[in-house]
Amino acid sequence: MNPKSSSLSVVLAGGGTAGHVSPLLAIANALRQARPEARLLAVGTPSGMETRLVPAAGIELATINRVPFPRKPSLDLLRLPGRLAAAVGQAGKILDDTGADVLVGVGGYVCTPMYLAAWRRRIPIVLHEANTRPGLANRIGARLSNHVAVAFEQTRLQGARHVGMPMRPEISGLDRTSARREARLSLGLDPERPTLIVTGGSLGAQSINRTIAASLHLLAEAGIQTLHITGRGKSLQDSNGRPLEAEGYRQIEFVDGMETIYAAADLLLARAGAATVCEVAAVGLPAVFVPLPIGNGEQALNASSLVNAGAALSVNDKNFTPEWVSKEIVPLLSDTERLGRMASQAQQLGIRNADQLMAGLVLEAVNR
Q1: What's the angle, vertex CA 119, arms to CA 118 and CA 122, rounded to 5?
Q2: For 254-265, how does the pLDDT look when each residue is reduced to its tens digit (9 = 90+)?
Q3: Is the domain of 34 the same as that of 163?
Q4: pTM of the complete model beyond 0.85
């Protein structure tokens, strides 16, 4: 990048997980559309998913050291000031070398040093928080920024604007009704049967997998077909070590392109990651959430708005059993009117243009 160029220079920081990288890429794509001449650089860590996903999207990637904040007193806590100072120095060099006009942060380890380096240089900071409970980096960044956006209305950050979750246009522009038949055929499913799709994310969820495996006969007897995305390396096997088979059941480890899944499903069963919750709302897909039982409880909070509106069901991981499947999921998939109401309620809460809203916020920060 040439810092002397007169075109807009945008640095986007975030990474570690798809939950950070996906909105970063969506914002970058919207900026490309709004300002085709803009120069974009993403900043992540050397070990995050951004090392694969960002270059694949055609965006240059720079990296700085990962600086986790120890949660308990330890030797790492004593080393923190030096590590943070070094990372802030790396961040400042990137901002200087690119002649950055604005920094966009989406959270993750990389963002704290980037925010501090930008603040020292009086470079405007725009940040997006994906979860209902903000991470530490964005709690710090929000104190340094006048342009704060959140995916969930109940997220508490100073001066935050509710914009929704930036997502790929293939998802935000999805028409489930018109895409349903082709999506099911492409996934090897019957276009006419009630369809449950189960996913625990790219890494899978063993507790969900176990319950689904024990519930296959219940689903088959009800005429429900199930596509089970087990997660990489987590395919289900029978007692002879062969891939588990059942009537109306198909398992795959991974799907590239969740828009196909959303189009094919009558009901989605999934964890309640922020991206999943926002995407099913945007496309109007009824869902059953099994929030991750570890962490700070943010997944249950992510799902709460859809659950309270009647657009989704939520069940604790320990209560997600074959008996619960029989009592809740089987009758739901045979009740087309209820599914229709859930879809309508979800769509009313969904926001499809969050990427464009974020691009507008970035340009607002630069113009100010």
Answers
A1: 85
A2: 888 899 999 999
A3: yes
A4: yes
